[in-house]
Amino acid sequence: MALAELSKLKTEKLIMKQNLVVCLAAVLGVFLMDGNSRAQDKISMGLSSVSALHSAMWVAEQKGLFRKHGIDAEIIVTGQGGTAGIGALLANDIQMASSAGDVLVNAALRGGDTLMVAGVVNKGLQRLIAKPDIKTPADLKGKRIGVTRIGAVSHSVLLMMLQRWKMTVNDIQVMQVGSSPAMLASLDKGGIEAAVVTIPSMFVAEDRGYRVLLDMADTDIYYLHTMIASTGKYIKNNRDKVSRFLKGYLEGIAYVKQNRKESIDVVKKKLRIGAEQEHNLERSIDLLSTKYYEQMPYPSMRGVETVLGFVERDNPKAKGADPKRFVDNSLLREIEASGFVKTLYQR
After folding, report:
1. pTM of the model
2. Fold of the 37-123+223-344 domain
C-alpha cells in the first residue's frame, strides 16, 4: 500500500473514532441530563391566594420539581379567590390558574373556555366555630353567624352546613364581617356568636376556647374549594406541557406529605411567617397533608354537582348542565396509568 494511501486511511479511521466519541457523548448526555439542565418550557401559574393552601405548589417551585419535568413554572399571585386569575387565563396572560370551583363553573357557563384539570382542595377548608355556650346546631337558632360576604365561599359553606342540619337561613342571622381575622375580632367583641373560618384562624379560635361545631374535613360534603384550571385550547395545543406541569405538582404533593420540616421551611419563607405564627403554619400544613391533599387530585364530580346546585340559583344555565363539561380528567388518568404516582410513594 502506498504511503499516501496509508496516511489517508489512518486519517479516516481517526475521524471515525472522533465522530463515534462525539455521538456517544451526546447519547450519554441525554441519559444523564437532569430536568434542571434541559430546555425549559415556560408556564405561568396564577394562584388565588397567598396561603398555606398552596403549599404543594410553592414546594414544587422551590424544590425544582417543575424543572425536573422540563417546566419553567412562574408562580404568581393573582388573588381575589381566583376571579382575577381566571380573567388573566381567558386573556391568555397566564396558562394555568387556581380558583374556587364556582368561579370556574360560572366562567364556563358564560362561554369561557375553562377546564378543571386537578384539584387543590376538593372539600371546604372551613370550620364553623362558636361561643362555648353553643353546644349543638340547634343552639344556633336566632344567633348571628359571620361570613366574609354573601355569595363568598364561607357563605356557601354555611348554607351547606345548615342544609345538613335541616335548617335554613331564616333560622339564623347571616352577618357579612370580612376576613377570618375580622370574624375572630367580632366574636371576641360579641358582634357575632359564631363564624365560618378557615386556616389559620380556625386554630387561633380553638386556642381561644371557641367550640368547633362542624369541621368540613370530617363530612362527606364535597365542594370545589380550590381547583387548578387551564383553557381547553391551551390543553389541546400543549398537552405534553400541561402533563409535565401536573407531574411537578403531583411531586409537590408527595413532597409535602413526606417531608414535613422542609415543606414548612419553604412555605414559611414564601409567606414571610414570623416565629409567633409558625405553630399555626405547622398545623395548617399538617391538616392539608393528612386530610386534604390527595395522591391523585382528580376534581370531584360530586363537588361539581354541589357547585352547580348553588350556581343555578343565580344562573339558570347551570340547571341540568352536565358536570363533565367543566372537567378534563384525561391528563391525570394518563399519568396515573403510567405508574408515575405510585413511584412517588414507594421511595
Report:
1. 0.85
2. D-Maltodextrin-Binding Protein; domain 2 (3.40.190)
